[in-house]
Amino acid sequence: MKKNIIKKPKLIYLITGLILILAGFQLVITHSLANTGGKLRQWEEKTDLLEQKNRILTEEINHLGSLSRIASEAQKLGLVKNSKVFYLTPQIPVALEKTANPGR
Questions:
Q1: What is the longest distance spanned by two Cα atoms in the chain?
Q2: Could you tell me the pLDDT band of residue 28, with boundaries at 50, 70 and 90?
Q3: 71 versus 2: which is more confidently predicted?
Q4: For 85, phi and psi rounded to 5 degrees?
Q5: 3-state SS assignment for residue 83
Q6: Predicted confidence band at 22 (pLDDT cuts at 50, 70, 90)?
Q7: What pLDDT score does 56 carry?
Q8: CB of 98 closer than 8 Å to CB of 104
Q9: For residue 20, what is the enclosing H or E element?
Q10: What would the mean pLDDT of 46-73 be, rounded to a whole number?
Q11: How far apart are CA 89 and CA 35, in angstroms?
Q12: Is the dihedral of CA 55, 57, 60, 61 positive or negative?
């Protein structure tokens, strides 16, 4: 009869210890998840901010690179539109002259 009395308190201590260890693990995991969620939220906010800045910069690039703006800036600098355009015809390379003029 004494053996049963001695074993029961050990079993209770073992179960209590196991419950405390599992509760500690749960606390650590919950804390880790909370921190990771906070960092993830910060990264999402930073991503949204960078995407917004990227859209603004893209619009600015499109505005600055528009042909009408370039033409007005060129006019401000005193540049004028050239009415005479010269087209250069390419010469036949020396290596190809023999095939182009077989009568030589």
A1: 128
A2: very high
A3: 71
A4: -120, 130
A5: coil
A6: very high
A7: 97
A8: yes
A9: helix 2-64
A10: 94
A11: 70
A12: negative
The gap from C-alpha 6 to its chain's centroid, in whole angstroms, comes to 65
Q: What tokens were used for 20?
A: 């405390």
Higher pLDDT, 36 or 99: 36
Reduced to 3 states (helix: H, G, I; strand: E, B; else coil), residue 52 is helix
Tokens matching residue 45 = 């906010």
**Tokens standing for 42?**
């910060």
Six-digit token pair at 100?
């182009």
pTM score, whole prediction: 0.47
pLDDT at res. 18: 95
d(CA 41, CA 75): 49
Helix (H) or strand (E) holding 77: none
Record the tokens describing residue 79, joined without a space: 């540049």
- 75 token code pair: 């006019």
Q: How far apart are CA 50 and CA 90, in angstroms?
A: 49
* Inter-CA distances, 49 with 40, 52, 54, Å: 14, 5, 9
**Residue 83 identity:** S
